């Protein structure tokens, strides 16, 4: 084959090229690889495993190019003609490798000790929270306040079906039906996690998943601190956050990245990367915050730590084990982002379940300044189910402690007065607070929810999640400067309305930022975001905002970014902004557009006030809920709950001073204020609850909204459902307008309930669909004598396919399934690994249904006991079942009484059963 001009030229100049260009071989190879002229395999051939000299490398490169043809040779000529002879990195490289091995070992050891010290400091306590700064004197390090936390170890990872707000389903992991999982040893504590990740020599990827604020970063800090303190530690930990990696926009080599990040390791880095590979544990925190795509299929393979790559390609090659082979990699992520890493690449999967009730109690003991204060907070939390449910998330425990700080600071005005009075009388105000109102209720008693539900509450105790957040914000704003010194509480609280009024502007801007972030699903903001809402970062550091908006300075680029201390705080501030704007007659959405001139905004607000303000307000509320409805991911759920809560005048009174024009003349107490949302809000919520277009998850959220709105009807309905659950009533319900979503709400708040028995409750497919968010959480589901029909079976099938499914006993006797219904159910059972006891007598599934069951039994290995009494199965159906059972050896009982079987067939079934020692077929003629 004739050679092209470029190939000929290279051939002619070969000697000259080898002589003049060999010293630049590394850079030339980088450029050619990035252009796609040479491949990963070519590179290893050219480098000859690192043992080949530069001249030989150059010769091989020329051979490879010649072999590739004219295009490759032309690309090479192009590279040569554009090559800048600045190869400082290569000349410097020789200096990085001291020749003497003994010296190298010493340098490496010293470097690693220094690295340990630096990393321990980096991952040390950050005294940014109000509570920690207030308690600097009594507690020296965060290490002391680390509360053990519960994890769950899984094989592979379940991709969560995201229909609900992540934070709102956390408590599900602690349901009693999970005890089985515990027995199987799937849950573990921090010690086991440390052992498995930092002591055992296993390479590959481990993934730690948890919702916002579940403590992933705290766990990483703790792991690093423990490792740094462990003199026998064999591992070398490198740790970075995805938030920092997201700021790298230029191609970067792994070596460059590590030496920028850990400049103290620079002298030993090449040695570290080559000789200690099996020992390195690389921690990458916060995968959900990584803003570059991770393309595991198409990213070119690269195993050269010196090659510059885009940061996305770098991460892909690290996770795939191409760069740093033999290294253990620990990734952390919120659940919605775990699927960014293909399941096959994940060796171990842990999810952070959060604090169990015992750990919650321990948290308050460790974080409140006295054991009495801890007892007060704990008795309050354990008697308010919706609040306790959220306390599985550590960040929420922190919010609760801050809100109820020492049990006195953030309670309502009249409580303060009670405190003042008791102080005057020489009694202890903390005792007042921890009195009878906070009596400890058994957390296992569902009645506790109602006893302390909104309607049953004394007027001045925080009862809802919104009220907790109001107290939290007030605490932060009022006590920010100077902390909460002894004896200063009352003065400061009495001055709170003025302080809040003065900070209203700042809170409004912060809320607008939070709201826009929420609409765009953004949780990290940069300086330009802040300035578009007139927030000046310098001003922010002077104000209370450091407690709610956290500043991150990337160690790699020194760029500033900001995020709210917890996503729920962002959601609360967004709702607060929404309500402030709505009450003042402005449109919260127009406040997000910087282009709207201030004059126009004021004009509009004035016009709105003249128009019927109530109608405008109604419009805004509808818009807020529509916003929540349209997002099936559920990420607006908490926002809607807070909006509902902020409609309650008593709740708003906590933030007296912010909502101008209200409570005038000033009320000395919240006692006279309504403790329920205005009727139009409750009416709107109720009409939404009955809307057939809403998904069951959103309907469930509406119940939470009603709880926040302190709707008294909800309490009544829940009381009714409690009676149903205790099986005191059956058949026709005593209550008109009962709603199955309300039952779902109640069930979510009763973690100790393992069995859901709703026999003969006239539960149809529509009602069952409303229960769907909680159906998978029970070990026994007894739904006999309800008109479920084929549509109901479809709903059950969805529950059976849920990754959270715990159902073991499924009892659907006499539920009108028919053959179509059973076909739907069988679809769900095909993928299910939990149901072993299926009772479905009197469902008329017939031979078509029996054929479906036979198909199912060929693959299902979980079902052990199937009861098919009275189902119109004839001989041909029975034949199909026997045929399937020759393949299935796990089924133990098959009940076939009262079907349409001939005498011969019954005999045959009995013979078949006799021939199988582990199978008992119950049948009679
Ligand atoms: N084990 C723990 N003991 C005591 N406090 C904890 C613990 N875990 C978390 N916290 C508290 O909760 C807060 C949030 O935790 P952390 O930042 O670790 O959560 P995260 O899961 O990393 O959240 P995100 O997904 O938002 O990054 C911490 O600042 C700390 O106050």
UniProtKB/TrEMBL annotation:
Spell out the CDD domains in the cross-references.
CARD
- Gene3D superfamilies in the record, alphabetically? Death Domain, Fas, P-loop containing nucleotide triphosphate hydrolases, Ribonuclease Inhibitor
Q: What InterPro entries has UniProt attached to this entry? A: CARD (IPR001315), DEATH-like_dom_sf (IPR011029), Leu-rich_rpt (IPR001611), LRR_dom_sf (IPR032675), NACHT_NTPase (IPR007111), NLR (IPR051261), NLRP_HD2 (IPR041267), NOD1/2_WH (IPR041075)
Report domain CARD positions: 10-76
Name a GO CC annotation attached to this entry. Answer: cytoplasm
Q: Which residues form the NACHT domain?
A: 204-337
Name of the protein described by the UniProt record = Si:dkey-118k5.3
Q: Does the keyword Secreted apply?
A: no
- Provide the topology term for how it sits in the membrane: Lipid-anchor
- GO MF annotations for this entry? ATP binding
Gene Ontology BP annotations: innate immune response; regulation of apoptotic process
Supply the alphabetized keyword list.
Answer: ATP-binding, Cell membrane, Cytoplasm, Immunity, Innate immunity, Leucine-rich repeat, Lipoprotein, Membrane, Nucleotide-binding, Palmitate, Repeat, Ubl conjugation
Q: Which locations, inside or outside the cell, does it occupy?
A: Basolateral cell membrane; Cell membrane; Cytoplasm
An example of a Pfam family matching this protein is WHD_NOD2
């Amino acid at each position: 084959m004739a050679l092209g001009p470029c190939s000929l030229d290279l051939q002619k100049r070969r000697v000259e090229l080898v002589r003049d260009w060999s010293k630049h071989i590394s850079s030339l190879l980088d450029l050619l690889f990035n252009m796609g002229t040479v491949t990963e395999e070519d590179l290893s051939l050219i480098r000859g495993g690192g043992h080949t000299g530069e001249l030989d490398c150059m010769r091989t490169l020329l051979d490879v190019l010649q072999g590739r043809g004219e295009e490759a040779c032309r690309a090479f000529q192009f590279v040569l003609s554009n090559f800048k002879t600045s190869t400082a990195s290569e000349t410097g490289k020789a200096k990085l490798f001291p020749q003497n091995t003994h010296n190298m070992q010493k340098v490496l050891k010293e470097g690693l000790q220094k690295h340990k010290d630096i990393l321990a400091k980096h991952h040390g306590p950050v005294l940014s929270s109000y509570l920690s700064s207030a308690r600097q004197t009594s507690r020296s390090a965060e290490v002391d306040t680390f509360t053990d936390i519960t994890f769950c170890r899984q094989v592979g990872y379940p991709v969560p079906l995201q229909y609900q707000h992540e934070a709102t389903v956390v408590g599900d992991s602690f349901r009693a039906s999970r005890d089985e999982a515990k027995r199987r040893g799937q849950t573990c504590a921090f010690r086991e996690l440390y052992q498995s990740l930092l002591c055992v020599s296993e390479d590959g990827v481990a993934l730690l998943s948890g919702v916002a604020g579940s403590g992933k970063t705290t766990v990483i800090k703790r792991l690093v601190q423990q490792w740094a303190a462990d003199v026998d530690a064999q591992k070398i930990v490198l740790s970075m956050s995805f938030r920092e990696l997201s700021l790298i926009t230029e191609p970067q080599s792994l070596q460059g990245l590590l030496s920028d990040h850990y400049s103290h390791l620079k002298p030993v880095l090449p040695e570290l990367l080559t000789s200690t590979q099996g020992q390195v544990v690389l921690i990458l925190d916060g995968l959900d915050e990584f803003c570059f795509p991770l393309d595991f299929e198409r990213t070119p393979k690269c195993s050269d730590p010196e090659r510059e790559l885009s940061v996305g390609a770098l991460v892909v090659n690290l996770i795939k084990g191409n760069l740093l082979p033999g290294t253990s990699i620990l990734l952390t992520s919120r659940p919605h982002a775990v699927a960014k890493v293909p399941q096959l690449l994940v060796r171990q999967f842990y999810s952070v379940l959060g604090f169990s009730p015992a750990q919650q109690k321990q948290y308050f003991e460790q974080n409140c300044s006295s054991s009495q204060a801890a007892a007060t907070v704990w008795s309050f939390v354990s008697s308010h189910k919706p609040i306790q449910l959220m306390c599985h998330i550590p960040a929420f425990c922190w919010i609760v402690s801050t809100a109820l700080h020492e049990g006195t600071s953030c309670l309502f005005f009249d409580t303060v007065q009670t405190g003042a009075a008791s102080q005057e009388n020489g009694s202890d105000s903390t005792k007042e607070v921890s009195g009878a109102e906070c009596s400890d209720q058994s957390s296992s008693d569902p009645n506790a929810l109602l006893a302390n539900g909104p309607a049953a509450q004394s007027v001045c105790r925080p009862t809802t999640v919104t009220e907790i957040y109001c107290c939290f914000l007030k605490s932060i704003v009022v006590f920010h400067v100077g902390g909460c010194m002894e004896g200063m509480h009352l003065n400061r609280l009495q001055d709170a309305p003025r302080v809040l009024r003065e900070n209203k502007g700042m809170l409004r801007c912060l809320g607008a930022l939070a709201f826009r972030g929420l609409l765009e699903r953004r949780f990290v903001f940069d300086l330009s975001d802040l300035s578009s809402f007139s927030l000046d970062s310098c001003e922010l550091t002077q104000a209370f905002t450091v407690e709610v908006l956290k500043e991150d300075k990337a160690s790699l680029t020194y760029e500033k970014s900001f995020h709210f201390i917890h996503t729920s705080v962002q959601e609360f501030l967004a709702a607060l902004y929404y309500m402030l704007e709505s009450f003042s007659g402005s449109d919260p959405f127009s406040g997000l557009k910087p282009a709207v001139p201030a004059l126009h905004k004021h004009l509009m607000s004035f016009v709105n006030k003249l128009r019927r303000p109530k109608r405008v307000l109604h419009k805004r509320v509808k818009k807020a809920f529509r916003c929540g409805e349209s997002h099936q991911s559920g990420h607006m759920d908490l926002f809607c709950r807070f909006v509902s809560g902020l409609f309650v005048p008593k709740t708003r009174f906590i933030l007296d001073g912010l909502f101008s024009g209200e409570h005038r003349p000033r009320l000395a107490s919240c006692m006279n204020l309504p403790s329920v949302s205005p009727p139009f809000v409750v009416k709107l919520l109720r009409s939404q609850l009955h809307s057939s277009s809403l998904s069951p998850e959103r309907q469930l959220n509406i119940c939470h909204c009603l709880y926040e709105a302190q709707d008294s009807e909800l309490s009544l309905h829940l009381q009714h459902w409690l009676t149903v659950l205790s099986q005191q009533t059956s058949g026709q319900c005593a209550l008109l307008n009962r709603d199955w979503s309300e039952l779902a709400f109640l069930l979510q708040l009763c973690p100790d309930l393992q069995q859901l028995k709703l026999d003969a409750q006239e539960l149809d497919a529509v009602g069952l669909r409303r229960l769907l968010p909680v159906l998978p959480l029970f070990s026994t589901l007894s739904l006999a004598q309800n008109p479920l029909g084929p549509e109901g079976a479809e709903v059950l099938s969805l529950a059976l396919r849920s990754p959270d499914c715990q159902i073991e006993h499924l009892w659907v006797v006499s539920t009108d399934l028919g053959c179509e219904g059973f076909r739907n159910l069988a679809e769900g059972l095909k993928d299910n690994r939990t149901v072993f006891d299926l009772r479905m007598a009197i469902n008329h599934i017939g031979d078509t249904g029996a054929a479906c069951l036979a198909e199912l039994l060929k693959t299902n290995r979980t079902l052990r006991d199937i009861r098919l009494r009275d189902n119109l199965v004839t001989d041909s159906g029975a034949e199909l079942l026997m045929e399937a059972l020759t393949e299935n050896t796990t089924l133990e009982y098959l009940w076939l009484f009262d079907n349409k079987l001939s005498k011969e067939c019954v005999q045959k079934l009995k013979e078949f059963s006799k021939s199988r020692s582990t199978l008992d077929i119950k049948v009679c003629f």
